[in-house]
Amino acid sequence: MGYFRSKNIAIFLVIIAIYLAVDWLLKEDVISKFQEVNLMLLGINVILATSLNLIVGFTGQLALGHAGFMAIGAYVATIFTVKLGQPFVLALVAGSTAAALAGVLIGLPTLRLKGDYLAIATLGFGEIIRGLAVNIEYVGGAAGIMGIPRLTNWPWLYAMTVLTVAAIRNFLNSTHGRACLAVRENEIAAEAMGINTTYYKVLAFTTGAFFGGLAGGLYAHYFYLIQPATFSFLRSFDILVMVVLGGMGSLTGSVIAAAAITLVNALLQDLALLRMVIYAALLVAVMIFRPQGLMGNREFTLNWLRPRGGANRGTIGD
To answer: Residue 276's pLDDT band (boundaries 50, 70, 90)?
Structure first.
């Protein structure tokens, strides 16, 4: 009991310390505007990567439509604040819920597919969402929606990022999360053990879509402008790269990979076309020397807090 109390206190103190440190640096203008933009992108990327990892890494479903959920969250949240004049928090809830409902609608018919077929179906879903946004004048068509109020700030972003990681972590440590892991390991064996595999795949898909929509709402209210092109299939591939690079089945890996890719993109910003060549070469190098990803399926641990002689369970979810 003492170990768990010490671990929870340590995690809480680290979370508070990071928030206060960054908040102070922002208020004192130690962090430049360019760095602040990348800091916000980092938080949004962490939400996207961890939510997609729940679907791909922990449930074993190859989905390529995460940008579609992000787009739904961004457009619905923007409609609530810009066109309907609703509070930001209500807009985020509405955007996330709309994305989750879309997750149910697309998940029920497509999650009976497997592998490449599911990837193609979800990729098509993302393109349908983008195509609808292009052809609906109410949301600005191809030009998108401009003049969105900047309501996403550091406290909001940090709170939502911590909430997302904590919620997914707790889900994975629950009975439902264990069922998702069983589906990933062997779907036939899971069914034989009485697990409703379709239900748990849809549940993971819907949960991931919810947080994808949350990331979209935060994105829209930081960058003033959303356009259909922002949510193309390339965006889905970017998120998938973060998941694979960090390690499929590791929340810590997703956080590290999201931070690393955001940092590399920022550092290579001035190199124009060479940026993508260097970026791709780095990814190839990591996949050659670390094909399981940076963390594999392992998590960061706080086992140093455990009294000597205790059992070593080896994950952050202990």
So the answer is: confident
- pLDDT grade for 3, boundaries at 50, 70 and 90: low
Measured distance CA(57)–CA(14) in Å, rounded? 26
Name residue, tokens 């206060």. Answer: 20
Owner of token pair 């392992």: 298
Residue 119's identity, in one-letter code, is A
Q: What are phi and psi of 122, to 5 degrees?
A: -70, -35
Percent of the chain past pLDDT 90, that is, above it, reads 40
Tell me the C-alpha to C-alpha distance, in Å, between residue 300 and each of 85, 141, 254, 265: 42, 44, 11, 25
Reference 240, options 157, 123, 105; nearest CA is 123
pLDDT in tens, 204-225: 989 999 999 999 999 999 998 8
The Cα 138–Cα 108 span in angstroms is 29
User: Dihedral of CA 113/215/99/130: which sign?
Assistant: negative
CB 130, CB 71: distance < 8 Å: yes
